[in-house]
Structure formats: C-alpha cells, structure tokens
Amino acid sequence: MSESTTGVIPGAGPTGGSTARPTASAPTAALAPAERATLRLREAPAPDDPPRYAPEWLRLREPADAAARAHDLLDPLRTHLAGPPGRTGGLVVHDLGCGTGSMGRWLAPRLDGAQHWVLHDRDPYLLHFAAAGAPRSAADGSRVTVETLRGDLARLTPDALSGAHLVTASALLDVLTAEEVGTLAAACAAAGCAALLTLSVAGRVDLTPAHPLDAEIAEAFNDHQRRTGLLGPDAVTAARDAFAAHGATVRAHPSPWRLGPDEAALTAQWLRGWVGAAVEQRPELRERAEAYLDERLAACADGTLRVVVHHTDLLALCRPTGGAS
Asked: Are 273 and 9 spatial neighbours (Cβ–Cβ below 8 Å)?
C-alpha cells in the first residue's frame, strides 16, 4: 500500500509515527494459556517501515466505525458465505490493513461457524495489538483463530488468497491507487472470494451549524486525498468498476459517522486532521483555517457541533473458483 507522506491520516486524524507507544488501556500480549493456542504469528519479509497509524487514534474511532458499518450488507454476505452444502472446514478471512483489528472484532461475532482470520498489515506494532485483541468465538460460539502476516498490499497475489472465502478491509480503499485497487479486485476474483470493504470516504461532510468556510475546507481536503495518484473519494467508484469487470456482483451502502456530544473526543481529533490536511494542500488557507478550527473545536467542546462524515461500504461477491472450499 502506498505510504502517506504527511503528518495526518487521510480521512481523519494524526498518525503516531515511529514514536507511538501503548497506553495503559491498550491491549497487551499477555494472553491466558487457553488463548495462546488460537494465535499463530507469522512474518513475511517486508521493509522496516515505521508505524503509520497511532493505536490511540484507531481505538478512538472504533466505536464510531462499528456504529457506521452497513449492516444491510451482512445478510447477502452470510448467504454467499454459506456456500455449497458439501463444503468442509471453516471460513478463511483475510483482513487487509487490519490496524489494531477492529474489523475482526466487529465482523467475526456476526458470522456463524469456525473462522480463521489472517491479519495483514505492514506495521508489526499494530499487528501485535490486532492479534492480542482478536475475538475468540463466532456468533454461534464456534472457534475463531488468527494469524498475522506482515506485508504490502501492492504485492498481493491470488496465491496469497488461496483458500480464502472473504477479504475485508476498513478505511483502506481511499488511500490506494487505481492500480492497487485493480490488483485487489483481480486477486479476489482469481481466488473466488468475496470482499467486504468498509468505511471509504465519500468526499462529503455535513457540519451543523454551518460555516462559510466548510465547503472550501472540504474541497481542499478532497484534493489532498487525491495527491500522488491516490483515489480518495473516488475509490468506491473505482473499486465497483474493478470488481464488476471481473464479473463480481457489487453492492454499495452508505456508512456515515454521525458525531455529536457523546463523540466529542473523536470529533476534535477528526477536525484537526481534516483541517490540517486542507491547509497542507492549500497553504493560503492557513490563517483563516486556524480561526475556523478554533471556532469548531470550541463548539465541539460545548456540545453544539454535529458532524456527519460520509463513507461508503462495498460488498463484492466474486464468482467461486476451485480455490475456496
């Protein structure tokens, strides 16, 4: 996956950089003896890239992500994953750019049957948290096991997904290039596995009360997301077309964050990242944007600000092949 060259997470908040450290509330690697058997750690060769996303930010956004994801896509996914009556073994799920593992914590308990999750990320620090915090049981009580794999999405191949039934990702598509989305769609199609790709930014933000600078900040942020060939708010359209070109059935559904007083901490961090990216894209905004940010943060602190950050979830149901059983 392409690296961000900025100090903000595209779409949201600050990165931790290589100086990020766990807090007291972070998951740890200390597992009960009964749990250790469910973890299998494996590492693939990859450059020693510094951590990109701060675990603190990922934990902060996890409840909003869980509330926003499109539940309407789960029934068609479950039907597809039910597969032929003669299929043996549990589901194999590859979670790309897993971060601290929030997607697995949300989805695994909503699917029946034994599951084995392969957690992919290029950051070993985040993989540690993802493995330690992974769910242990499915919706029907079946066992869930995990392994971690350090690697780069740009090198994803159909062989890497051999035997997979589902590929998942969260807040990933918009930080990919068209070529990387094409690689992902081709790999899923060749492996015959479904893809559930959630929380891709849609390029629209609604703030209440409105402010004269809202539209200009949003436009600059969207331009920032498209820098260096990244898809940004065009990602869902590109992914829909890429999967459809391989014969997949594709569904999209809105998955907005709806942020009010109860999400003030998340809103404040999102605002800093959103405005910061806009200013980085258009430095001439700096003076006005600083006053704007101060005003918005004050409204956030006193509970009068409401924000809807629009996202889209995408479900691609690829034609089965002999690779998944």
From this structure: yes
User: ∠ CA 281-66-303 to the nearest 5 degrees?
Assistant: 65
- Of 114 and 56, the structure prediction assigns the larger pLDDT to 114
**CA 84 remoteness from chain centre:** 29
Q: Is 84 exposed, middle or buried (0-12, 13-18, 19+ CB in 10 A)?
A: exposed
C-beta separation of 75 from 99 below 8 A: no
DSSP class per residue in 151-205: --GGG--GGGGTT-SEEEEES-GGGSBHHHHHHHHHHHHHHT-EEEEEEEEEEEE
Handedness of CA 79, 84, 85, 90 (dihedral sign): negative
Contact 42, 85 (CB under 8 A): no
89-135 pLDDT tens trace: 799 999 999 999 999 999 999 999 999 999 999 999 999 999 999 99
Helices and strands counted in the chain (H then E) = 10, 9
Question: Please, what sign has the CA dihedral across residues 159, 160, 165, 171?
Answer: negative
Ramachandran sector of residue 42 (left: φ over 0; alpha: ψ -120 to 50; beta: rest): beta
Radius of gyration of the chain from its Cα atoms, rounded to whole angstroms? 20
For residue 209, name the pLDDT band (cuts at 50, 70, 90): very high
Rounded Cα distance between 231 and 238, Å, is 8
Whether 277 has a pLDDT exceeding 70, the answer reads yes
Q: Using the 8-state DSSP alphabet, how is residue 7 labeled? A: S
